[in-house]
Design a protein that fits this description.
Elements lengths: L1 H15 L5 E11 L5 E12 L2 E10 L9 E12 L7 E16 L2 E19 L2 E12 L7 E12 L1
Antiparallel strand pairs: 1-2, 1-8, 2-3, 3-4, 4-5, 5-6, 6-7, 7-8
């Protein structure tokens, strides 16, 4: 009886031991491709626990009045499922999340909530510096002019 308790306690201690968490921050540039290609820039910051991560992201796309493409600002909280870091210098991930958006064209404006999903890779450069490549699809709710928006970006990512 005592040996079972010792074995169970040892196994629990081994598997319940906290894993080191890591954090990262990304500054990015890219393109929002719906309804027209326009530049997007933003930042993301998050924390990872081995294969599960959480992040906050902000992105801003400027209005293009000549093509009637609205500006779009997104604020989202996301969860990531990812490979462990160091997988041949690549860390692949899939992500989904929700947040808010503000779309504006001239004096018309819509603010509501949005869902997003996508994926990408973080590629090691040197030490904690990485390149991040990301693709997202946003589903904008409310009365958005364009309810489905796609975005692709590349950014510099610092892991700490």
């Amino acid at each position: 009886m005592r040996s079972r308790f010792v074995i169970a306690a040892t196994l629990l201690a081994l598997f319940a031991a906290p894993r080191p968490a890591s954090a990262d921050a990304t500054l990015f540039l890219g393109a929002t491709t719906s309804p027209e290609n326009r530049a997007v820039r933003g930042f993301a910051g998050g924390v990872s626990l081995l294969i599960i991560g959480f992040e906050f992201e902000y992105a801003n796309t400027q209005e293009d009045a000549t093509t009637h493409a609205p500006s779009l600002r997104t604020y989202s909280g996301n969860i990531l499922v990812q490979t462990p870091p160091g997988f041949s210098g690549f860390q692949f991930y899939a992500t989904t999340g929700t947040g808010f958006f503000r779309e504006r064209l001239g004096s018309d404006q819509e603010t509501s909530y949005a869902f997003n999903s996508g994926g990408g890779a973080k590629i090691s450069l040197a030490g904690p510096l990485r390149v991040r490549l990301d693709y997202r699809i946003f589903n904008l709710r409310g009365d958005a002019r364009h309810s489905t928006v796609q975005r692709v970006y590349a950014g510099l990512n610092l892991m700490f």
